[in-house]
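mind reviewing this stuff:

——
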Amino acid sequence: MKTFKTLLFSLPVLALLISCGGSSTDESTGSTAQRTGTVGILLTDKPADPALFLSINAAIESAELIGGDDDAGRVVLYSGPTQTFDLLRLRNEAIPFTFNDEVPTGNYCKIRLTLSDLELVLADETPDDTTDNVTYHPNLPGNGKLDLVAKDCFEVGPGEVITLQVDLDAANSFHIVGNNNGFNFRPVVFLDVLSQEFDSKLVRLEGTLAKTDDDEMLLLLCEAIPTAHSNSEGCVEVRLGDDTAFFDNLDHEGMPRALDELFLPEKLGETLTVIGWPQYWVPPYMNIDVPEGHYPTPGECILWMVGVEPGQQEDAIDCDDVPDELPQDTVLVNHEGPQKDRHHPLMVMDGLVIERGEFLQLEGEVATAVDVDTNEFTMNLADGAPITVEDALSVLLQQGETDDINGTRIVSKAGELLEAGDIQAMLPLQVDGVLDIDTDTLKAALIILDTATLGSEQVTGTIQAVEEGYLTLVPDADPVCGIETELLMVNLSEEVDLLTVVITDEESVINPGGTLEIGQTIGMNGNCETTGYETDNVVIVDDQRD
């Protein structure tokens, strides 16, 4: 479990306050209030077979937010230029795709992504040479339109921030057809709404340090999130906690440093990389209610104090006289209502690792466990790594010089903080670090272990029988769990998650839920247990294309 303490505080609003679009007047009261919220998209991917693919490059040209009945209330979240993402680089983390803070309030039920291309780069027997790898471009169903339906429709309220995690499951989406010389694309994509109950993957951001607060241990990182509107600087509020670690590769060769160094005045304006967990968050201007009769006249502004009764607020002043930096816990109110500024955070995250300077990102698997005497272990690099080594690479777990300096952070993909003893041979991992060229040792800042792969296996096939609690499958390929298998008995968990993918020539619609029936094509990610193959998730694929 994550152990960061909650900090109920928002950074003071910064300079150049501007009004937010989308305001409207309530005719019954005569008051004016915000009628827009913020919706953002994080992209991530479930693991695909690294022995088959070197990279999977998805080109996304647009994203739309779609309302309830009859696809009402369409909002363009992103409309180009086309962005290309290597899904295999998103196995362990999520990244922000786009945030739009002028989404009209209302009820929304799905996201439509439009892909212009998919490039599969196949792995080969020369991992050190990636210049001649075979590529394949599968046909995109429905002209590349993917409709992702949320499990429950969600409401965007005035000023509210809604973050969606889009998980493109590459492992279940590509299937070999013919004599191993082509691939069929059957999109499997999960859509989750970030809430107080939902734990996101780690998110990686890079931005400019615009503001700090050492009393509350907060950083404001701007230009960190791509935005659809110019009235935002793409800022993120980063909360530092007892488990946050800071590594400096500009002045200290990638070593861990005290968090206090981040608050030095000379650090402002520098570029930092932050890896951490996004949090469900209510912006400060959501916490105030301006009653009828308390709005200032056009041209005047009130520095509204959060938590103070309307009748005890200070008098309105000329908007031209508003200070560049507002006092803490103060929100600007003009004749249109509470206002955002260009530095308002679009997301809040608990920081796990802060990196200053360049750090390598290497993927592979653990070769040997940690030597307790040297604090080192070895890893085998994945194909296409940015560096080459003759044998396994030595990785050093760095230690803080004092008790208040954290060393290398070790974490599972599920977000659980781990110990050195959890680094076991054969586990897939990703390491952020700095290479010591004198010793050919990688000094690690962050290690992400894929502990869920222990005993796991992906299986696809056709359902032959369905009973309560289990099904019988004709697998597409064997062995399964190391055993030659013509019929596979699959134990279903009590609360198995179902996802249904309907593919036509016009579109692909991915819906949560479904009903298991004989003859269906399905895919599963499960575990090989002593009692047999077990799974808690099944993807039903209904491909209706000619």
Remarks:
- Residues 284-339 form one domain.
- Residues 163 and 527 are 30 Å apart (CA to CA).
- The mean pLDDT is 85.
